[in-house]
Amino acid sequence: MNNSGIFCSAITKIIGYKPKKIILFETAFTHRSLNKTTLTGDALNYERLEFLGDAILGSVIAAFLYKNAPKGDEGYLTQMRSKIVNRAYLNSVGKKLQLIHLVRSKANVANFGDNINGNLLEALIGAIYIDAGFAVCEKFIYKNILIDFKDLGYLENKITSYKSLFIEYCQKNKCTFRFENCEDNGKDPVKHFCIKLYFNDVEIARARATSKKKAEEKAAQRAFFALQKEMQ
Amino acid sequence: MNNSGIFCSAITKIIGYKPKKIILFETAFTHRSLNKTTLTGDALNYERLEFLGDAILGSVIAAFLYKNAPKGDEGYLTQMRSKIVNRAYLNSVGKKLQLIHLVRSKANVANFGDNINGNLLEALIGAIYIDAGFAVCEKFIYKNILIDFKDLGYLENKITSYKSLFIEYCQKNKCTFRFENCEDNGKDPVKHFCIKLYFNDVEIARARATSKKKAEEKAAQRAFFALQKEMQ
């Protein structure tokens, strides 16, 4: 089997049917570093399909919640959706499907960071929608994403941001806090950010991650558990 | 024809087919002030359908832009979508369809403000999706909303926020500005907000509207035109 045959059978296995327009899926796995274009000069990479997939995913999840949480009001539905359409979770689904192995890129895939997994998943969803329509796309989303959320009760109790929880705690208890950048000495090929978190002017936690936001969240989570332990 | 017969035929005319589950459309036009619930105690008003319709609308527009702007990158598509899914525009479509005449409410409809028109439109879209599926819903959105956006070039040049345009102008030209609340003396039954806009410490415009945000936008638009006139 040649390269394109291998690609087509890998896609068929992931999406559960033989794609009609393989070019859509090739686009869904083409990184912009390749600078590929169509004959008429349109950019050919996954970013446009990612935009589309993100929107389709949002509506399928909205419909799922509408049907499965008849007692939830608009605020509840919005909150639950943002818990499902969560970067970390979409990244984990993309990883489980091993999408990164199909990427065509000039840049080194190892340097992309974690979000590439979720981005490819969204682009794939966009490609399925254009290739086979809404119903097939919805089925793919149910099978690969919504299957984990049958138990909405569990999701209700899931904490989405330790940073906001930590800040809330400080405000309630009139404690001061500040996040501070510090130099990262790690030897990773991917750039990392290091954050020190001070609680009442004492360093309570430190964390590093591939973005400032993630490092802050990680530090806040550590601080939150440290405080919990102290209170016991 | 009795009341429910009149309602059903009004809906049929708007959506272009005879609804299968009229209860969905009754819900889409029920305001929460009625405190209606189902037999099992679930709230029965348009807010949940509005959440759903908003998501479906977002994905139909994303797909429309993906197909109609093959040269637009992700940033362009995002920007164009926010120009279409614009409160003022959705309100105007809701008004054109005269949705407000179908509302069932305990509160006085005249006091609702403009956004009720767009909210009802979104709830109606949610009801069509549940009643008849994605394809029928998409057709409704094309016929009533996207028909106005065949010319994407026109949309590209549309200014969406005079406030940001005005602020940009001030920053570029090192001018100061400030928005100030002032007392509203209008006799409207609906609460209005009044905003004074100062440019280099001189009042350049004043506006009133049903929200602070809208009043600021209106004042910025007036200021922008005043400045344009001055520069000519």
From TrEMBL, chains A, B:
Superkingdom classification of source: Bacteria
Catalytic machinery residues: D54, E122
Residue stretches making up the RNase III domain: 8-133
SUPFAM superfamilies: dsRNA-binding domain-like (SSF54768), RNase III domain-like (SSF69065)
Any Pfam family matching the protein: Ribonucleas_3_3
Keywords carried by this UniProt record: Cytoplasm, Endonuclease, Hydrolase, Magnesium, Metal-binding, mRNA processing, Nuclease, RNA-binding, rRNA processing, rRNA-binding, tRNA processing
InterPro entries: dsRBD_dom, RNase_III, RNase_III_dom, RNase_III_sf
Cofactor: Mg(2+)
Residues in DRBM domain copies: 161-229
EC number: 3.1.26.3
Record field: catalytic activity: Endonucleolytic cleavage to 5'-phosphomonoester
Annotated positions binding Mg(2+): E50, N119, E122
Function recorded in the entry: Digests double-stranded RNA. Involved in the processing of primary rRNA transcript to yield the immediate precursors to the large and small rRNAs (23S and 16S). Processes some mRNAs, and tRNAs when they are encoded in the rRNA operon. Processes pre-crRNA and tracrRNA of type II CRISPR loci if present in the organism.
Name recorded for this polypeptide: Ribonuclease 3
Organism: Paenimyroides aestuarii
Gene: rnc
